[in-house]
Amino acid sequence: SIPFFAVYISVLLGNGTLLYLIKDDHSLHEPMYYFLAMLAGTDLMVTLTTMPTVMGVLWMNHRQMSHGACFLQAYFIHSLSIVESGVLLAMAYDRFIAIRTPLRYNSILTNSRVMKVGLGVLMRGFLSLVPPIVPLYWFSYCRSHVLSHAFCLHQDVMKLTCADITFNRVYPVILVALTFFLDALIILFSYILILKTVMGIASGEERAKALNTCVSHISCVLVFYITVIGLTFIHRFGKHAPRVIHITMSYVYFLFPPFMNPIIYSIKTKQIQRSIIRLFSVHRRA
């Protein structure tokens, strides 16, 4: 329980600090940091969704959960994963506009447009998971009620039902293709265009400066999608793999990106570094 608790606390502190800095520091009131705040908020919600049951098992050996609470947890876990993918896509769009049309950046990414993009990302995540989760409430469960993880996942729960789950098998595959896979393709395409634009800049110093503004986002994208691909491959092709590998990959998927994202942005973004230094210097003087 100690390593898990340490990681959870680090995630809460790291993402909570990012949210506080973006709210408090007026120099961070820009579209890039608004999207970063959405990413930090999503990571916080993922952590708060899984933490109670994981720590309940590790601390108190509490291994029971009501059907309603289980389905609700599955709904939030999967919805927030799609929201995170959407936020990373929105951040790619932000970097694309900043580098391709820097003079029109503020006129294109206005506060109202950022809010609309954010609302669209949230709606896509939370509405797209309603169709597969709602049927779980009226399915009959005649098999073992033992889950593979310390939290509820849709693919885990649906295996316990005796009803026809054809829709619940097919819909998630289509959803993953239209969200994670499509988002990853668009992000890749946007970076190809960004790279093309950067290569057209005459000054080597300006090229490095432009690319440096994308490093943090690229790192977060790689962390997120590598864990998504790893978990997907384990679920699809690792049926004979030891159970501990399945469980470990699920924890890596839910803990590694929220843990790494604040660290990546704190190390790679000078404005965030300055805000952190300012925050600590104010507290020291106080």
From TrEMBL:
GO MF annotations in UniProt: G protein-coupled receptor activity; olfactory receptor activity
Statement: the UniProt record of this protein carries the keyword rRNA processing: no
Lineage: superkingdom: Eukaryota
Family matches, as InterPro entries: GPCR_Rhodpsn, GPCR_Rhodpsn_7TM, Olfact_rcpt, OR51/52/56-like
Membrane topology reported for the UniProt record: Multi-pass membrane protein
Primary localization class, coarse: membrane
Location(s), subcellular: Cell membrane; Membrane
G-protein coupled receptors family 1 profile domain location: 14-265
Alphabetical list of PROSITE patterns matching this protein: G_PROTEIN_RECEP_F1_1, G_PROTEIN_RECEP_F1_2
Keywords: Cell membrane, G-protein coupled receptor, Membrane, Olfaction, Receptor, Sensory transduction, Transducer, Transmembrane, Transmembrane helix
Any one of the GO CC terms: plasma membrane
Signal sequence, renumbered to the chain: none
Gene Ontology BP term (one): cellular response to lipid
Ranges that cross the membrane: 6-22, 34-60, 72-93, 114-138, 170-194, 215-238, 244-265
Pfam families, sorted: 7tm_4
SUPFAM superfamilies in UniProt: Family A G protein-coupled receptor-like (SSF81321)
Family recorded in the similarity comment: Belongs to the G-protein coupled receptor 1 family.
PANTHER family from the UniProt entry: OLFACTORY RECEPTOR 51B2, OLFACTORY RECEPTOR 56B1-RELATED
Protein task: Putative odorant or sperm cell receptor.
Protein name: Olfactory receptor
Source organism: Panthera leo
